[in-house]
Write a structure and sequence with these properties.
By secondary structure, the protein is mainly beta. 5% of the residues lie in helices and 42% in strands. It contains one helix and ten strands, in the order ββαββββββββ. Strands 3-4-8-7 form a four-stranded antiparallel sheet, with no helix packed on it. Strands 6-5-9-10 form a four-stranded antiparallel sheet, with no helix packed on it. A hairpin with a 4-residue loop joins strand 5 and strand 6. The longest helix is centred in the N-terminal third of the chain and has 5 residues. The chain starts with 7 loop residues before the first strand and ends with a strand.
Amino acid sequence: ITGAPPTTTESPANETVDLEEHLESAYFAEGPGLEKGKVGTECFFTLYAQGIKTSNIDCVITGPETIRADVYDNSDGSFDIEWEPNVPGQFVIDLRIDGVPIK
């Protein structure tokens, strides 16, 4: 897969097929920075996106403040993502590959 994963495509019989369900399993994230953090301390997690030929990874964390996380390409299909909360509260992580949200 190169670039943004398609959400639909035409099959040889001209039927529309939803590929999003099949592609979702190719991406996952894990690490302590997804669940909890401490004010003034760097939080981190890793996105695994094997087979994706893009480095267009965007991560914005929203809550009591909005934070654009730093994303580091490990050149092995994984990306380290780091962010630091400056105020306490609950946050929502919006992680996207080529603009497509990761659930």
